[in-house]
Amino acid sequence: MPSSATPPAAPSRARPSSSKPSRSEAPSAIGSAVRGAVVRGILPADEEKVADLGRLMRSGSLDSLKPGEFGVILGIDLARALGVIPGDKVALVAPQGLVTPAGVIPRLKQFTVAGLFEVGMYEYDSGLALIHLEDAQKLYQMGSAVSGLRLKLDDLFSARRVAVEMMRALGAGTYAVDWSRSHANFFRAVEIEKRVMFIILTLIVAVAAFNIVSTLVMLVTDKNADIAILRTLGALPGSIMQIFMVQGAMIGVIGTLTGVVLGVLLGLNVDTVVPVIERVLGFKFLAKDVYYIADLPSDVQARDVLTIGLVSLVLSFVATLYPSWRASRVNPAEALRYE
Q1: Confidence tier at 17 by pLDDT (50, 70, 90)
Q2: Helices marked H in the chain — which ranges?
Q3: I want to staple 146 with a disulfide (CB 3.0 to 4.6 A). Which of 4, 49, 117, 128 is the partner?
Q4: What are the φ/ψ torsions at residue 310 (nearest 5 degrees)?
Q5: What average pLDDT does the segment 275-302 reach?
Q6: Are 174 and 120 within one domain?
Q7: From the centroid of its chain, how far is CA 124?
Q8: Closest CA to 90 of 41, 33, 128
């Protein structure tokens, strides 16, 4: 649904000036703070169709933005930096100045803080201000025009294709940006991290498989006499090998199933477990002023779970081959010489 994305502005805390007139002093403003931000003009009735800001409001609501009342909704970190709360006044300074005989002066308009929102991404919480579309058009002297439109798709993975089709259909002078491009570095980092995590998990499973190897080797060494007796009773080398392969495979299956069940349970409840650990340890894993996000939601993918599970089973089975082969090569005469 349409809304305008207006150029950046610099909101500042606007407080009544404190002055004590005297013959040699002039009034002076106190408690001022200035922060750069992106001011976005929206239609409150249609905003829920393109963003979920309504459920992310910490104070006030989008409906409090009325045309002509010049209200503004700020990100919670931006409001904290300015030191304002709902009901306070802020002055928006537009980068486009006014040309006067005295020179170019900045265009300034006072707005009333109508609410606060918290997205969870530092970029938005500390640098986004929302005003009504008509107020934005007046502030930037755009008449009835808008500088951009935002669309919400049912399939988020088709955003790049739709953006390309829109640029082709609308022709030159049109520029479309999808979510994968607006935060390309972040999503590329997540993609790389996912691949690295697969490698790390595989190495962890390999270390566990090595433990199976060492356990079975020690078992074979300890059971040399028993293996020799079985061989003298007619057991074939293949049968001895199967015994230890089955034992190692059972260890791998039980360990894999236990790990998969515990991992899935943790993945489904990570939103509950992580805050508890943070409170116990006394620090936050993802500080949004450092990582730009406050938390990392978990989405259990059946394909990923099956892949890791199969890799674990295969490595567990491979780990049983050498100890089993070693057990099948036990010489009864040598093993029973000192018995």
Answers
A1: very low
A2: 44-47, 76-82, 122-125, 133-139, 159-170, 179-182, 184-222, 224-232, 237-268, 270-281, 288-291, 302-319, 321-328, 332-336
A3: 4
A4: -65, -40
A5: 76
A6: no
A7: 14
A8: 33
* Residue with token string 């040309």: 99
Q: 22-40 pLDDT, tens per residue? A: 333 322 223 467 888 888 9
Pair 81, 115 in one domain: yes
Does one domain contain both 330 and 247? yes
- The dihedral formed by the CA atoms of 142, 143, 145 and 151, expressed in degrees to the nearest 10: 80
Say if CB 156 and CB 179 are below 8 A apart: yes
For the chain, what is the mean pLDDT? 80
Residue 82 has pLDDT above 80, yes or no: yes
User: pLDDT per residue over 102-116, tens digit each?
Assistant: 667 777 888 999 999
Is the Cβ–Cβ distance between 75 and 124 less than 8 Å?
Answer: yes
Report percent pLDDT > 90 for the chain: 9
Separation CA 78–CA 64 (nearest Å): 19
Q: Which of 321, 304, 300, 308 is CA-nearest to residue 205?
A: 308
Q: Which of 202, 219, 238 is nearest to 316 (CA)?
A: 202
Contacts of 16 (CB under 8 A, 6+ apart): none
Separation of alpha carbons 309 and 331, rounded Å: 37
Tokens (6 digits) for 164 = 């390309």
Asked if residue 171 and residue 159 are part of one domain, the reply reads yes
